[in-house]
Design goal:
By secondary structure, the chain is of the alpha+beta class. The protein is built from 38 helices and 21 strands. Helix content is about 50%, strand content about 10%. Helix 9 packs antiparallel against helix 10, helix 26 packs across helix 28 and helix 32 packs across helix 37.
């Protein structure tokens, strides 16, 4: 064997044997007698017995290979079983999915032909092998918990986009999504499945039965009289809807739950190789366990946990003989999982820290030393894939022991530098998805997860109003409630401690990947990770419309929190060594990262528009402020590309509107690596009944972005390009004069921080909002239970039937609440805990500081990606809406100051000319509108510097024609609400008896007018004689339009309602009608606000525009009353009385009191000035 890799070097001359005792003491080479004893102890026979010394063949290294061949060829009683396996089965011995003819619909199939993703309404696919006799089993690893039917079918079954496995006479299926079994008809069966579960499908063709198991637990016999006999053979098969994904294990890997006696996997295990591998592993264990005392000339027992290869040629040559046979076997996935992974896990079973088990490091050194490079690569790849699969599909148990076990082994492997770097470069982000290692799945079935034992007492808040909001009145908690709550909280703390163990191990993995000190044999791990992490972000940012290729958001949430913890660990570690640097509490991303081309932002939008446009228009500012020169050849290329920009964007827009099937057929396939099989490999086969099998190469990521600022691709960057050296600032190249000349931290950590912000924007925020649904369910069931208990207390004793029904309802609600409260405890610990809230708050402060630093650079602020502003707004929204009432934002350090700084950003940038994107401008406007609805945040707006407040009000009073006027008007209305005539209500009087859909909406908050901002508005209208008429003319124009549209709409609705087909009133039409009405009311309130704060605009005849404005107002206001009470069949009343859904807000009161308020103020102020 040739030696490869790093390890202990041995000179060839030391391999010769010697019989001289004195020489053996010097060189460590053993004599022939001792060698013979040693080799016989290592290489024992199959029965483990050694023949007597007199009858043993003398062993040397010259005849060891012959002896080893004989040992490995010994039969162990399992050899004849291979001949029986094929009976009762037809088809290839290697069982995979039939991607040539055995499918229907659109499907994406993995490279290994074992994983499949649905890409159409209801695609179906079967395996290549069928069975007609005997007992058979296969496993399905559930990657997503949606609509799927899994089971068996015959060759005669014909499926389509509506009917799949179980919908035809000779097909049988289990559906864990709807908890049913299918064979033409359907009945209830089994339990609900969740992502991460394993379904075992069993068929007994001797008895004619089909059974299913979920995570090794039998669900009972599903079908007991299936058709069998001549011509009947059953294929494993599945039908699955769009985006759903699974992976099959027909026996190519060890079955996770092979406990069903008498059943065989469809694919035979490699029995001969398995026997050899186990024998060789036994020999390897003997080498570790038995040592040679050269000085004493005897064999000794050694402590295996501390075994090291210490330059002993005898041991090394022995190991070389073992690995000569062992290495090729370790390239096979079945053997890696069954033999190697099991052995490595057994080493860690003794407990203690991973560092206490150096044997794994020594074994990895041996592998690199004695195996060929391609063998070690394949072995490590299969080992990590098996670990990932085991982690992802392990059931949740109370102590999370299985997950902890697999994570510990992952850490032990990644601690080996050479293995870590190989896996980072070629496996972790390319072949499998290491992000899965940072996910802690939420148990759907709390009983199986052991949460009943962990949290024996359940509790839920009981103080809710009829609207579902938590009551502000603090009711005295009963002694029983207090005991339940405290017991529940103790249970939550026990759960939290166990989950924190898993999270700590996940952070350890990231610390290993972010290590920048391991420069042995090439660049450090951190810089490999950076490049892979950037590609990962690019893949998720560039495919946001294609859900099958995105990292699931629940994975992203966990990955984000672990990455923040690891980043802050290294950031503060650097601060400890470099006192002048910033701590992680002061972290921000410097603005030069956005324009110096060192960090790739793909095709993400900048605040100032397209990067190509910014490079052309701001090239002089870049040169003057940041000393950054754009290469003229690059500028020319940008200009040439811009010629085709419109055509390209039109083409891409057209493609984005095509059905996903057309996309897949017409263009190159993106990688559906996330929802695919637990092998998590690249799925590059696209199956379609229209186009049989397209295996197009994946489109290179670099082509997704046509124009790039950077000069170096991600792959070309070196450590020096990132960190800088000898005057080269690396990522910080091009520091603007406004940026302080102070070290921040290591440049590589800045790029990780930038990636974290991008991750939050991609999918984390949406997932945080989604998981709030469980808390809402608890509130609804708690209200229902409370209502039921009140009815029970009021139920007359004579109505026994009603009383018993109420008791049944009470029991159902209580059981559901017990289940949900335990599940909510898990979600609160893993997603909404105080530590997770502090992570999101830290991210908010990072974004605020980054925006503030970018803002100071003037025109260069346009280079900042839009997602920084989005994350600042969304993270604040998450803290306010998603983490309470578990944790309160008010308790966070520096909360008031953060609120004011965010208010200043919103107030300044909603009308910033440097921001050109309409979507981000609308988002800023909406965030500011929401900000002024709540007293706490409105006070923050009032605490920003006076100059900024006045500037904000001036921007709000700019003519409406230049921007989204509806949102602007809404902001002004909120500042006035509570001061106008009849305008102190939270909800319209005629709606008080109805329940709001969402009582937490900004529009349903109590009035909180701002007299300070009203005063600024009055001063501006007083002082600027041009501002007032332009503003009021735009308000009157919009009011005229909105009310005219409203009247036209109610006429159409009335006509439609008078027809026989009343149900055909379009819901969108109703929504537009209600919106026009609400706009009319809000515009009237702004007019009332203006008349009240600055009446002289209408009444001061010294102003040239006063008479014209008053005339317009006098013409407009009288038109409202006749329109609302028109004699033409009293149109308004008739539409209101229809009580159409969507027109609840349309009523006389809101619009008439607004008109009255304007008229009253005009009359009062006319008398004063008269």
């Amino acid at each position: 064997m040739t030696s490869r890799g790093a390890g202990t070097a041995f000179s060839r001359k030391n391999y010769r044997l010697s019989t001289e005792p004195e020489k053996s003491k010097v060189t460590g080479i053993v004599n022939s007698r001792l060698l013979n004893d040693y080799l016989h102890r290592i290489f024992t026979s199959a029965d483990g017995n050694q023949p007597a010394a007199a009858y043993r063949k003398h062993l040397t290294f010259q005849n060891l290979q012959e002896h080893l061949d004989r040992l490995l060829a010994e039969e162990d009683g399992s050899g004849d079983s291979r001949d029986q396996v094929a009976e009762g089965r037809l088809g290839p011995s290697t069982v995979v999915l039939d991607h040539t003819s055995g499918f229907e619909g659109l499907l994406l199939v993995d490279d290994d032909l074992l994983g499949v993703i649905g890409h159409s309404n209801f695609g179906s696919i079967r395996a290549t092998t069928c069975v007609y006799k005997g007992k058979w089993i296969y496993e399905v690893l559930i990657s997503s918990q949606g609509l799927m039917q899994i089971g068996w079918c015959t060759l005669n079954c014909r499926f389509n986009q509506e009917e799949g496995v179980g919908d035809t006479p000779d097909s049988y299926a289990y559906d864990g999504n709807r908890v049913r079994k299918w064979n033409v008809t359907t009945t209830n069966y089994g339990k609900s499945w969740a992502a991460g579960d394993i379904v075992s499908c069993l068929i007994d063709l001797d008895e004619g039965t089909i059974d299913f198991c979920l995570n090794g637990i039998s669900l009972g016999t599903a079908f007991d009289s299936i058709t069998k006999g001549a011509g009947m053979a059953y294929f494993p098969a599945i039908s699955l809807s769009f985006k759903e994904s699974v992976a099959f294990n027909f026996g190519s890997r060890p079955l996770r739950y092979p406990l069903v006696e008498g059943y065989r996997p469809l694919q035979d295990p490699p029995l001969a190789d398995l026997v050899k591998a186990r024998k060789l592993l036994g020999y390897l264990k003997n080498v570790i366990h038995i040592g040679i005392d050269v000085t004493e000339g005897r064999l000794v027992e050694k402590d295996t946990s501390t075994w090291q290869l210490q330059g002993e040629p005898t041991v090394l040559i022995t190991l070389a003989h073992i690995f000569n046979y062992f290495s090729p076997l370790m390239c096979k996935v079945y053997l890696v999982e069954d033999v190697l992974m099991t052995f490595l896990l057994s080493i860690l079973e003794r407990g203690g820290a991973v560092e206490a088990h150096p044997l794994i490091q020594q074994l990895l050194e041996l592998m690199w030393l004695l195996m060929e490079e391609y063998e070690v690569h394949e072995c490590l790849k299969q080992l990590l894939m098996s670990l990932l699969r085991a982690y992802r599909f392990s059931p949740i148990i109370p102590d999370l022991g299985l997950q902890i076990h697999y994570l510990r082994l992952t850490i032990a492997i990644l601690k080996h530098e050479k293995s870590r770097k190989y896996l980072l470069r070629n496996v972790l982000f390319d072949v499998l998805r290491s992000v899965v290692f940072f996910y802690i799945k939420s148990p759907l079935r709390v009983e199986e997860a052991g949460l009943q034992e962990l949290i024996p007492t359940t509790w839920w808040p009981n103080r809710f109003t009829k609207e579902g909001k938590e009551s502000k009145e603090v009711k005295e908690e009963s002694a029983e409630e207090r005991l339940r709550r405290r017991a529940y909280e103790r249970g939550c703390q026990r759960l939290k401690k166990r989950i924190e163990v898993v999270e700590g191990l996940q952070v350890q993995i990231l610390k290993l990947l972010l290590n920048n000190k391991d420069r042995g044999g090439g660049e450090a791990s951190r810089y490999i990770f950076l490049n892979k992490f950037r590609k990962f972000l690019q893949e998720n940012a560039s495919n946001r419309g294609n859900l099958t290729v995105l990292c699931p958001p629940e994975y992203m949430v966990c990955f984000l929190h672990r990455l923040i913890t690891a980043l802050r660990f290294f950031w503060d570690g650097h601060k400890a060594k470099t006192p002048a640097a910033l701590s992680s509490e002061e972290a921000y991303v410097p603005p030069q990262l956005f324009y110096n081309g060192k960090v790739d932002y793909f095709d993400l939008q900048r605040l100032g528009g397209l990067l190509s446009h910014l490079k052309k228009t701001l090239k002089d500012d870049l040169a003057a402020k940041a000393n950054v020169l754009i290469d003229p050849t690059e500028l020319q290329a940008v200009t040439m590309d811009d010629l085709d920009e419109d055509e390209e964007s039109a083409t891409s827009a057209a493609q984005s509107q095509r059905p996903s099937a057309a996309l897949a057929i017409g263009g190159a396939l993106a990688r559906p690596g996330w929802l695919s099989s637990p092998t998590l490999g690249r799925a590059n086969r696209f199956l379609s009944t229209a186009a049989v099998s397209l295996m197009n190469p994946r489109r290179p990521l670099s082509t997704l972005e046509k124009i790039k600022v950077r000069m170096l691709s991600v792959e070309q960057r070196t450590e020096e390009d990132i960190e800088g050296s000898h005057g080269n600032e690396g990522l910080l190249l091009g520091r603007p004069p406004e940026e302080p000349d102070q070290p921040i931290t290591e440049n590589s950590l800045l790029e990780v921080l930038d990636g974290i912000v991008m991750m939050y924007n991609l999918s984390v925020h949406q997932q945080l909002g989604k998981m709030v649904g469980v808390s809402d369910d608890v509130n609804e069931y708690a209200m229902a239970l409370k209502d039921t208990e009140e009815k029970i207390s009021r139920c007359p004793k004579r109505r026994r039937d009603i009383y018993e029904e109420l008791l049944k309802s009470q029991k159902v609600f209580s059981e559901k609440l017990n289940h949900l409260s335990r599940r909510l405890a898990w979600i609160n610990v893993t997603i909404y805990s105080k530590e997770k809230m502090q992570d999101v708050y830290w991210l908010l402060r990072v974004c605020i500081r980054t925006i503030e630093h970018g803002d100071r650079t003037g025109s260069l602020f346009a280079f900042m990606p839009e997602f920084y502003l989005s994350v600042a707004m969304n993270s604040y929204s998450a803290l306010k809406n998603y983490f309470s009432p578990v944790n309160s934002m008010e308790e966070l350090p520096g909360y008031e100051e953060t609120l004011v700084r965010l208010a200043a950003i919103l107030a300044k940038h909603f009308a910033d000319s440097r921001i050109v994107g309409t979507d981000i401008r609308d988002s800023l406007m909406q965030a500011l509108a929401s900000y002024v609805c709540y007293p706490h945040s409105l006070r923050a707006v009032e605490r920003i510097p006076e100059e900024q407040r006045i500037s904000m009000m001036k921007n709000l009073l700019a003519p409406y024609e230049q921007r989204p006027w509806a949102q602007t008007n809404w902001i002004l209305v909120r500042l006035w609400r509570g001061c106008g005539f009849g305008y102190r209500y939270t909800r319209l009087p005629h709606l008080l008896k109805t329940k709001p859909e969402d009582a937490s909406l900004p529009s349903l908050q109590k009035p909180c007018p701002s007299t300070l901002l009203q005063r600024h508005m009055a001063d501006l209208l007083h002082s600027d004689r041009d501002l007032a008429p332009s503003f009021l003319n735009s308000v009157l124009n919009q009011l005229n339009w909105a009310f005219s549209e409203f009247i036209g709409m109610i006429q159409e609705i009335q006509q439609a309602a008078e027809r026989l087909e009343r149900n055909f009133v379009d819901s969108r039409q109703l929504k537009v009608c209600a919106t026009c009405f609400d706009l009319s009311v809000s515009l009237l309130r702004v007019l009332e606000m203006t008349v009240t704060l600055a009446p002289e605009i209408f009444l001061d005849w010294n102003r040239p525009s006063s008479e014209l404005l008053l005339r317009r107002l006098a013409q407009l206001l009288p038109s409202f009353a006749p329109s609302l009470a028109t004699a033409e069949r009293n149109l308004f009343d008739r539409v209101v009385n229809l009580r159409l859904p969507g027109l609840e807000s349309v009523d006389h009161y809101p619009i008439l009191v607004a008109v009255t308020g304007i008229l009253v103020r005009l009359l009062v102020d006319t008398d004063v000035q008269g």
